[in-house]
Amino acid sequence: MRLDPSTVGLAKIPFNKPFIAGAELFHIARAVTLANLAGDGHFTEQCAHVLEQRFNIPKVLMTPSCTAALEMAAQLCDLKPGDEVIMPSFTFVSTANAVVQQGARPVFVDIRRDTLNIDEQKIEQAITARTRAIFAVHYAGVGCEMDTIMDLAQAHDLLVVEDAAQGVNAFYKGRALGSIGHLGCYSFHETKNVICGEGGALCINDSHFTVRAEIIRDKGTNRKQFFRGQVDKYTWVDVGSSYVPSEIACAFLFGQLEHLDRIASRRSEVYATYDRLLATLASSAAIGLPCIPDECQSNSHLYYLLLENEATRNELMACLQSQGIAAVFHYVPLHTAPMAKKLGLDSRELPVTEDVANRLLRLPLFFDLTSAEQESIVAAIDCFLKPDSIRLAA
Ligand SMILES: *Cc1c(COP(=O)(O)O)cnc(C)c1O
């Protein structure tokens, strides 16, 4: 096995580094003294409460991951074999897996060149009599064009699930990502903004899903109703799984949620530093930088460059790696993956998705990244990109 320096921490500047914001370890110790380490104890409830209050979400259920929340959402959409779900191909595998697990078919739609989110103008032509839902992915914590997506969904009687894995504490027209569709899914994986190692949440914005969501989450039992005294015994009532996170994970997460604002402002500083350091380069060399539309308030989840072509991207990535800087690409479009071929999902032409995926390079961005480190990253990029002629002329 080859060790990837970015994941084992040998890189001089790793791509990501988990961090402690405050009292995470103290809260874990408290969870132990409260003698409840399984799920749905004090900290699970506190985390759900903070998310509901902060982001104006009617009901939040904490989950072990965003993947789990997406699986619950797909089950709640009551997808049947042959049903279709519209989503971008430019996303993480979990968006599609959730749908495929239910026997339904992802229908991939191309992305916008500016935000790299699903192109809302191309959704309607992908809707058929079998379409049941739209899974909108907020790439980089920048909101999809949700007004148009919700209007389309209403006109065609579709459900909307937001994959807001990257969108915690980001907003579209003042509304929190994850709070706009019928269901929303958050991630607290260590690569995201607010973390607990592995963790997630299901946001339930349409209350008619709540009772069934609680059952699916608790192994298909009505245990929650039993504890509330609504039924006199608890038993197996639906297909479900183990989608309740441990109190240890939620205790850690609670320590981070207490510092949401500080985490947000630190990340936005790092983001602004990249913007500032790369501005000259972006105007003189052929690179593109991330774009945030006016109606979106980003959470500075990730920073990327768009290089001129795939070869340049790969050479720059190798050049940075050789200097101990872990820059990575994102994503292998799902419609080009082996699994898409197996499922017959590889026929669509998605020119923007393919073009962008070939040219995109993500830069290190984490809470503890220093501006000196950012300067050395940009100096390395600068040195690679500036042809000798320009450097000599300057
Ligand atoms: C990270 C991510 C996920 C998966 O989140 P987990 O919590 O690791 O399961 C899903 N979708 C997108 C878009 C992501 O970025």
Bulk shape: globular
What share of residues is helical?
25-40%
SS class:
alpha/beta
Q: Summarize the biggest pleated sheet.
A: 7 strands, mixed
- How many DSSP E strands? 12
List the helices and strands and how they pair.
Layout: H1 5-8, H2 24-33, H3 42-55, E1 59-63, H4 66-76, E2 84-88, H5 93-101, E3 105-109, E4 131-137, H6 146-156, E5 159-163, E6 171-172, E7 175-176, E8 183-187, E9 200-204, H7 210-217, H8 223-227, H9 247-257, H10 260-284, E10 296-297, E11 303-306, H11 310-322, H12 338-343, H13 351-359, E12 360-363, H14 371-385, H15 388-393
Parallel strand pairs: 2-3, 2-4, 4-5, 5-8
Antiparallel strand pairs: 1-9, 6-7, 6-10, 8-9, 11-12
Helix pairs in contact: 2-9, 3-9, 4-5, 4-7, 10-14
The structure holds pyridoxal-5'-phosphate (PLP).
Pyridoxal-5'-phosphate is lined by residues 65-67, 91-92, 94-95, 137, 163, 165-166, 187, 189, 200.
Description:
This protein has 394 residues and is an alpha/beta fold. It folds into two domains: 5-17 and 260-389, Aspartate Aminotransferase, domain 1; 24-257, Aspartate Aminotransferase, domain 2 (3-Layer(aba) Sandwich). It contains 15 helices and twelve strands. A seven-stranded mixed sheet has the order 1-9-8-5-4-2-3, with helices on both faces. The chain has a three-stranded antiparallel sheet with strand order 7-6-10, with no helix packed on it. Helix 6 (146-156) links the parallel strand 4 (131-137) and strand 5 (159-163). The protein binds pyridoxal-5'-phosphate. Pyridoxal-5'-phosphate binds next to helix 4 and helix 5.
